[in-house]
Sequence to fold (252 residues):
Amino acid sequence: MIKKLSHLDEKGAARMVDVSAKAATERVAKAEAIIVLSKEAYEAAISGNAPKGDVLATARIAGIMAAKKTSDLIPLCHPLAITGAAVEFERIVERHALRIVATCKTTGQTGVEMEALTAASVAALTIYDMVKAIDHGAVIEGVRLLEKSGGKSGTYRSTAQAPSPARARPAPIMHETSAPRPAAQQAIAQREAFRAFMVANHLRATEWAKQAGVPAAQIYAFLTGKSRTIGTDTAEKLARAARVRVEDMFAK
Fold:
């Protein structure tokens, strides 16, 4: 049986659901978001020494504020009296990533799922804003509801498992599983060497790209793993701007 969307009336027009007949119960929801950063941005975020200040403290406050403002952002959400809101961070060292977990509580006639999701999302966006001077290529992923309780529908817990951050994901080939290939390992080694070169020479991606006359997005794509290589022409221009040989940028 296909469930009817509660935010649409009989004519298909959007509406705010009438919850006046529902019982007021304790409602709790927990949501997460993950933001993957460059090594430099990750270290700045966890150290509290980013150019704009304490990244995690700012993101925590932003997430809590966002939970209280959810009905102003999501058109058909009810204004709720939030009785509790918390934002916590978990380090995923292997990926230079941060897992954000937001928990919201209320006693009312509708749930706080959207408040928790909004808190996690805005906390992630705030982290991006705080570190974008270092890393424009940061990626926000995996925004999802983890669990909720209260109300007529009862308890929900996500059964989906997030990918393990501690292991490289094997690539499926012809219904079988293979270990990461040497080419992938070489790309990782080159990326780490390139990142180390930038740090050692105090090179900022945006400024370096501007001097070389290439798009900064190509550097960020390589640093964040979106691209396995930097094109030959781009690499040569970057090397000239840094006054080094191309191979020097990728040497361990």
Q: What stands out?
A: The longest helix spans residues 113-131.
